[in-house]
Amino acid sequence: MKSRVASLLKNKEPETNRGLLIASGTTVPADTSDGYQTGCTFAKTDGSAGTAFYINEGSVTSSDFNAVDPSPVAGPIILDGVATAAIQVTGTYSNVLDLASWTPGTSTDGSILKVGTGIGSSGALFATAGQKGMAVYMNHTAISGTFTGFRLRTSSNATSASHSVNNLLCQVSVESGKDAAVINSGFFEVIPKGTNVISTLRGLLVNLDSAASQTVSTAQMVAHLRVHTRGDETMSGTDDVLVIENEAIGGNGREVDSAIKITDASLTAGIIGYTAAMVVTASCQRVFDLGSMTVGSTTDGVIMRVGTGIGSSGLAFGTAGQRAFALYLRCTATSGTFIGMRLRSIADPASGTPNIDNLLCQASVIASKDAGVVNSGFFELVTKGTNVVGTGRCLLTNVDSAASVTYNDALINTHLRTHTRGDETMSGVDEMLRIENEAVGGNGRQMDSFIRCMEAAMSGGIKAAGYLIDAGTSTSLLATAVLRLPDDEVTAWDDATDSGDSEAGAIKVVIGSAVRYIQLYSDVPVD
């Protein structure tokens, strides 16, 4: 009979004849009641949420009915065992885990999720090569919008500004006495699979969103790269704060446009993006070191290029008095020679005879535009007063001859050259070299000479030069005269009253320490 009833009810036949499995009523059986099997359910017909369904957790001779609360479990869920997955979700859900109404406690060690019991040997143990502590594989099939694989947003909502927030803290360490090959605290990688059309591809995008009326009292940084150093580490390789690397993984690799690009977007009303694109405030042996750079094949600014070309393609500087480059250097050494800038180019061709312009300074004026003064180069020695200076030079040019060197055409220390056409309009003077003494304080000062020619360390009867000035043998060099001197009645005299080939003036010269005069004639002397 029991088996027949159980079959009709689609239940298993009870394994014991004593005690009820299902009961109901308005009064829950009292504790220690007899006659209810362990696991017996009781429906309280006048109950409400949390007090309508009970289960006997006692015995058949001593019951203990407790309410079955449909609300979330208050205590922890403990999963203890070996399985492929402790929790497996196969259905369709809007949220697999929803902690929207959860109230955090006071724990400082993994409030939402904790794996392992601490750092080092207390952490969860992964002993198989290639394991991933957490692997999330997602497939985005929407044809529009932005999919976010993982969003972590921490809102600072404290009443005091003395707290700090690390929205994401990734730490990787090596236990004392243990070794490792490569350690990456974070690894971000974008992997196109081929035959893709992608508008913008980024391995990492870091964005700082400024709020209206916010106040930043110390510093605002989009990214801060910091290294904690001690000084007692052993470094057998290089140590760099930032490495930017182009690694070829197929064929010969590909040349990218730039390793670092600094740009701005959507700025209006004359707002400049940066006071300085890069600021170095640290103590450095070198700010830039290109010692191991491999030079490419471009001819337009290999080490650095500013602007994209001459003329209107150059950068536009629209403020009066601007300096494109401003280097302010200070030497505090008490001896030796400080060099503000050294530029040295070495000819080292595999074959042939290349030309080298070690420094090329060009200033130009755009067609149909005007300019006041154009200086292709400006060298200035500025003493500040109460100085004691041994030798002051504004410009020193030196040709250092090497032993056994051969000059096939010419050796020239300084070559002044002007390209002329003949169709220019010259309303002023045009000169190859102008030497000027300008008074900038008081009445100025008389210098010893405009040009001084001298020798140094010559011996064995060797003279420093064959000619003081050599105009060559060309008959088209000079059009008017060799010299033009002022009639100052001190160093040169002109007597216009004389005529013919008689004396008509003189030039004062000093031979050694003796004053002598060169007689001048108003006409070509006649033999």
Short characterization:
By secondary structure, the chain is largely without helices or strands.
What would your notes on this structure say?
The chain has 527 residues and is largely without helices or strands. Among the domains are: 2-67, no CATH class; 484-527, no CATH class. Helices cover 1% and strands 8% of the residues. It has one helix and seven strands; from the N terminus they run αβββββββ. Strands 1-2-3-4 form a four-stranded mixed β-sheet, with no helix packed on it. Strands 5-6-7 form a three-stranded antiparallel β-sheet, with no helix packed on it. Strand 2 and strand 3 (53-56) form a beta hairpin. The chain is rod-shaped, with a radius of gyration of 46 Å. The relative contact order is 0.02.
Radius of gyration: 46 Å
Strand order of the largest sheet: 1-2-3-4
Describe the biggest sheet?
Answer: 4 strands, mixed
Strand content: 5-15%
> What's the SSE pattern?
HEEEEEEE
> What is the count of β-strands?
7
List the quaternary state of the chains. single chain
Write down the overall mean pLDDT: 89
Apparent shape: rod-shaped
**Which segments are poorly predicted (pLDDT under 50) over 5 or more consecutive residues?**
none
Class computed from helices, strands and strand pairing: little secondary structure
Q: How widely separated are the two ends?
A: 165 Å
Helix content: under 10%
Number of helices: 1
